[in-house]
Amino acid sequence: MKQPKLMWLASALGWVIGMLIAHPALAAGPLAIKAGTLIPISGPPIENGVILIRDGKIVAVGTDVEIPVEAKVIDASGKVVMPGFIDPHNPAGMSQANERNTNVPFLSAVDSIDPILDYFEDCRRNGVTTTAVFPGNATMIGGRGAILKTAGRYVNDMLLRRDAGLKISLQPVGGSRMSHIARLRAEFDKAKRAMEEKDAPAPPAPAAAAAENAGGESGGGPSGGSGDPATPAAGSEGAASEPAATEAQSSEGLAVLQQALRGELPVVIYCDQAMDVAQAIRLIENYRLSAILVLGRECYEAAEMLKKLNKPVILDPTLVFWKTDPLTRQDQQIIVPKRMLDAGVSFVFQTESNLRQTLGSGFLWYQAAASVKYGMSREDALRALTLTPAHLLGIESFVGSIEPGKDADLVILSGDPLASGTWVEMTLVGGQEVYDRKTDGKLKRLLEEPPQ
Q1: pLDDT, tens digit, 9 for 90 and up, residues 386-424
Q2: What is the mean pLDDT of the chain?
Q3: I want to staple 65 with a disulfide (CB 3.0 to 4.6 A). Which of 47, 50, 248, 379 is the partner?
């Protein structure tokens, strides 16, 4: 009997070790961070504050927090600690943004997310701890996005919300704006009709239906195949040529659109031009959508219209640019944050992760600092990096501020968050150190002096 008992103990020990390896937060004890300046976002800055963390969650914040003797302590004296930044819209976490598929509501970004992409490494290096990965803009209905933490070995380890919203783009692909909008409305109308038919009274009993159709032409009833010209009968040429997988995808896509119509799934709408904003608002009103607007560079011209939404919008990563006036032929500088602030429009930022990005478009802190330069308050700018996008995405109970009960997603900075000389010293996700500037080999190679 001893041998089976030993085998059972070995198996149990192996299970415990496996759990601790798979979930490092369970293996680690409490963690305390001593900050020079702690910016909780939900309240005023705290000098010489302490954050106590257990099992990946913040359990206490303040100046009089008792640190357990067994706690690991990170000394961030002279440094700034604040919540990790949130990137509210970015296709860069996907292996391919959308492949120009124009009508694929049944697809999910989760199936295309690759945790080892450079994007996630750059996020951790830049203090971004949460990102909303959505399909790109070259689409019509591009599928569902997901909200993830920026650290994890597998996608499931990173997921915060699997279905974060349905991506829609008003930028026409392969046609005119008129046909693009018409096709988009047709899809929503089809989903709406299906919902209404489902809620309609039940049809007559079979016996009553048979009596009602007595004397009619043979095959003219529901089973005759000619009652609804838009729906081929089973076994007809149209039905035979359509594979079962496509039918399943169509059914799933219809269900996704119905979720959006019921307000159960947010709709993320990309507006390329100012004229698209008016179309987006009409879609929101006509179909009663819960929507988030992602703006193209030219949408500043619709600032007054955007104010009526009474909801933050996601700005294009390029905040300042030059444009030639078509009437005067004079070049003028367009400062998007100032236009939005003057119109009373609340906004957040997104990064651009491709070869065309400018210096500022790849960094959330830079965009916040530029907005402060053009009139945004410092408090609002810091909230636009953290708590405002958390509210916009509906994840404020998890991230966006340093409060007891929230995830310990934190960034330790060398100085002022909006100063150009400040570095991200350390990034933590769920209380785990996922980036340390001291061990960043890429950064060291970038900054080292070339040989003489």
Answers
A1: 999 999 999 999 999 999 999 999 999 999 999 999 999
A2: 85
A3: 50
Q: Where are the alpha helices (DSSP H) in 220-351?
A: 237-240, 244-261, 274-287, 303-307, 336-343
CATH code of 85-194+247-399, in short, is: 3.20.20.140
The CA radius of gyration of the chain, in Å to the nearest whole number, is 27
Nearest to 314 by CA among 368, 389, 387, 378: 389
Contact (Cβ atoms closer than 8 angstroms) between residue 402 and residue 40? yes
Report phi then psi at 29, rounded to 5.
-85, -165
pTM: 0.83
Architecture of the structural domain at 7-84+402-452: Roll (2.30)
40 vs 260: CA distance, rounded Å: 34
Cβ neighbour number for residue 194 with a 10 Å cutoff: 16
First-to-last CA distance in the chain? 73
176 burial level (CB within 10 Å; 0-12, 13-18, 19+): exposed
Alpha-carbon span 382 to 394, nearest angstrom: 18
Residue pLDDT, tens place only, 37-50? 999 999 999 999 99
| 192-196, 236-240, 321-325, 328-332: least confidently modelled range | 236-240
Burial class of residue 352 in the structure, from the number of CB atoms within 10 Å of its CB (0-12 exposed, 13-18 middle, 19+ buried): middle
* pLDDT surpassing 70 at residue 233: no
In 330-427, which ranges are continuous DSSP H helix? 336-343, 364-373, 378-385, 387-393
In whole angstroms, what is the distance from residue 240 CA to residue 232 CA? 9
Tokens 């997603």 belong to residue = 409
Burial bucket for residue 132 (CB in 10 Å: 0-12, 13-18, 19+): buried
Query: In this structure, what token pair is assigned to residue 63?
Result: 């100046």
Joined tokens for residue 187: 């899809």
- Domain-wise residue ranges, the chain: 7-84+402-452, 85-194+247-399
Q: Is the pLDDT of residue 309 over 70?
A: yes
Q: Cα separations (Å) of 255 from 184, 193, 289?
A: 16, 12, 15
E strand residue ranges, 290-363: 291-295, 313-314, 320-324, 331-335, 347-348
Diameter over CA atoms, the chain: 99
CA 235 to CA 115: how far, in whole Å?
44
Q: Is the pLDDT of residue 211 over 50?
A: no
Residues with Cβ < 8 Å from 58, sequence gap 6 or more?
Answer: 51, 52, 402, 403, 404, 405, 406, 407, 408
With CA atoms as reference, report the closest residue to 49 among 407, 40, 411, 41: 40
